[in-house]
Amino acid sequence: MRALMLIAPLLVFVLLSFVIPIASMLFRSVENGIVSETLPLTVEALDGWDADGDQLPDEAIYEAFVRDMVVAIEAKKHTRLGSRLNYEETGMSSMFRKSGRALKKLNPDTDGPFKDQLIDIHDGFGELQTWRVIKTHSVEVTNGYFLNAIDMQRTHEGAVSQPEDKQILVKLFIRTMFMSLIITGSCILLAYPISYLLATLPMRVSNLLMILVLLPFWTSLLVRTSAWKVMLQQQGVINDTLVWLGLVSDSARLIIINNQIGTIIAMTHILLPFMILPMYSVMQTIPVTYTRAAKSMGATNWTTFWRIYFPQSIPGIGAGSILVFILSIGYYITPEIVGGTKGVFISNRIAYHISSSLNWGLAAALGTILLGVVLILYWAYDKIVGIDNVKLG
Amino acid sequence: MKLKNTLLMAAACVTAAGGAMAEEMTIVSWGGAYSKSQLKAYHEPYSAKSGVTILNDDSSAEAVAKLRAMNEAGNVTWDVVDVVASDAIRLCDEGLALEIDADTQLAAAPDGTSASEDFGDLLVSDCFIPQIVYSTTFGYRTDMVGDTPPTDICAVFDLDAYPGKRALEKRPINNVEWALLCDGVAKDDVYDVLETEEGQNRALAKLDTIKDSVVWWSAGADTPQLLADGEIVMGSTYNGRLFSVIEEQKQPVAMLWDAQVFDLDGWIIPAGLSEERQKRALDYIMFATDTQRLADQAKYISYGPARASSAPLVGQHAELGIEMAPHMPTDPNNAQNTFLYNYEFWADYRDDIDAKFQAWLAK
């Protein structure tokens, strides 16, 4: 009890500022109350309508729709519903916005019948697809966003694939995973010798080296990314130097930015300290006596390293890899700036849906999948390497 | 989300504290040279006149998402927000912006013309008060195009006559229109064609012909930097950015005004403000969008005022001392062939075509 009291402030803080917001954001990936809340009568009436048939809904449904819409327009909710349905069927947004003015004038009690009037107001009300979309997306808890997130869609006939020319998200998920692995790998390769030097050199020199590692770490992410642009572009520092040295001809300057190479280089550089620091702190704890003992018993340098030193440094590699991998699959701004078209990640689409299209349901579904994948990988890592084999120092 | 919540909480504390001091308002804009022009033309004279302290927040790029989050949290901390017209329409649809009656809530022109007539077609949404007309257009390196500088938008698609890289924005809007235009579609038919599956594919097929030579930008500052470094031979960006590359930084760059796409930027007032704050915001809007104020802004940045009555009042640049009228996208010489961003169309088709466009990019 006393222990609970002691951690209570922190617990409340974590709950309020972390667990609840994340949970509520993730919940949006299935939450879909807007259709049945805005059009309650219509949704009820559509229950009896056969979406697979080729008959338009009957007059009762059109009347229910007018009743719902008059209330919705009064509350200015019809355009919001239009935006929601436009995620599923292009054209719904303007249909709801445009028909709002005309619908507002109708009196549900006296102006019937409505079917022909509505079709007059907007052709869309005379199309089967409109009613199918409303019916399909009237459920309060939907799998629609998750289907969208894996390049499928919810239709009246069940889940079907998106047309091929709109399939992009699965590809981006795979690319994000693949490139994050490459970035983690290149971080390991680059960080290992540096960490080794840091851990074995005399204090004075290693302190200086440490500052060199930390200095970029303290520089703004945007500054570092933009600096890479200046370095890597075709008229940039690296290409200029190569041309000057005569290694590359002026007409065949290397393309090392606005593609995957650019993303890998820039992100490896940015995430390198997250690999070096855990490696360094683990390597520091490896006693020199072990390697000396190995050598004194006739082991070669390589054997000493491979059989004695390396196994003891694995916990550092593990910790660094988890850090770098998890950070990199969520990276957004660096791929956006140096990634061009082939180097962008899934997080760039999440950002688009959060801030441009306002399709937060889809963004939440993408985020949930990303979180799920990380948890699965973490679990796999635990099975293969063992999580107690990870040390930060 | 965690960060956002913390920020919201922090913002809530700030407002709670600020509420007691009264006479203070938060205006959200884009930052940089643009915010500076608003500070000089609007904020400073308004503060001098009314005594209201104006706090600036450079969050316009994320305004739609943030306003929605604030609205859901029930605590809107912004009083007036500068957004592009398409965002204003989205905010209005979502019920996040206040509807404005132009004739009663905005100032009439000096000659008595009503505000709704003075702004004319530019009042594209019930919630939106237009401020400037800007355009997305091309700039090219004068030293990289030989003796025949481009005069036609289709130079962008002509790799034989103008070899080298081009910069285009990493989104379908504008690019697909230009592609169709250069694929032989008449200007008036562009959106009819784009509504169809074949039309969209046709636009992408045209873009395919230059895909390998395109650098895709996502920030307005990219193209000016790429032009200045000689990375690209031509590129699209906002005309004000090109103005500063040409006139302020004196780079060998010139404008290709052909088929420039006009877009609007202006104010919205968030829905759900307290009566007192709403009154203050409306008072500011009334002042800041009158004829003289809109003309004043053009002294600091090369964007055209949204009122017809402001155009004759546009004078010289405040620091460079050059005549601003010829640099306005709306100047008759520059505006011989223009598009107006089709808000209705893109509100419907943006997500659909964007998905196709991104899939095409990744191919």
Sum up the structure in keywords:
heterodimer, A: 393 residues, mainly alpha, MetI-like fold, 2 domains, two-stranded antiparallel sheet, 19 helices, 69% helix, 2% strand, elongated, B: 363 residues, alpha/beta, D-Maltodextrin-Binding Protein, domain 2, ten-stranded mixed sheet, 14 helices, 10 strands
In percent, how helical is the residue content of chain A? 55-70%
Give the helix level of chain B as a range of percent.
Answer: 40-55%
Shape descriptor of chain B reads globular
Average pLDDT metric of chain B? 91
Strand content of chain A: under 5%
Radius of gyration of chain B: 21 Å
Number of helices of chain B: 14
Order of helices and strands of chain B: HEHEHEHHHEEHHHEHEHEHHEEH
Q: What does the overall shape of chain A look like?
A: elongated
How much of the sequence of chain B is in beta strands? Answer: 15-25%
CATH architecture tag of the largest domain in chain A: Orthogonal Bundle
> Could you tell me how far the N terminus lies from the C terminus of chain B, measured between alpha carbons in angstroms?
32 Å
Unreliably modeled segments of chain B: 12-21
CATH architecture of the largest domain in chain B: 3-Layer(aba) Sandwich
Report low-confidence residues of chain A grouped into runs of 5 or more.
none
Task: Describe the secondary structure blueprint for this structure.
The complex is a heterodimer of chains A (393) and B (363).
Chain A: H1 2-27, H2 34-38, H3 40-46, H4 59-74, H5 78-86, H6 92-104, H7 115-121, H8 128-136, H9 144-149, E1 152-155, E2 158-161, H10 169-200, H11 203-218, H12 221-232, H13 237-245, H14 260-284, H15 288-296, H16 301-329, H17 333-338, H18 346-355, H19 360-384
Antiparallel strand pairs in A: 1-2
Helix pairs in contact in A: 3-4, 5-6, 10-11, 10-14, 10-16, 12-14, 14-16, 15-16, 18-19
Chain B: H1 2-21, E1 24-28, H2 32-50, E2 53-57, H3 63-73, E3 80-84, H4 85-93, H5 102-105, H6 115-119, E4 129-141, E5 166-169, H7 175-182, H8 190-194, H9 197-208, E6 214-217, H10 222-228, E7 234-238, H11 239-248, E8 253-268, H12 275-288, H13 291-297, E9 304-305, E10 338-340, H14 343-362
Parallel strand pairs in B: 1-2, 1-3, 5-6, 5-7, 8-10
Antiparallel strand pairs in B: 3-8, 4-7, 4-8, 4-9
Helix pairs in contact in B: 2-13, 3-4, 7-9
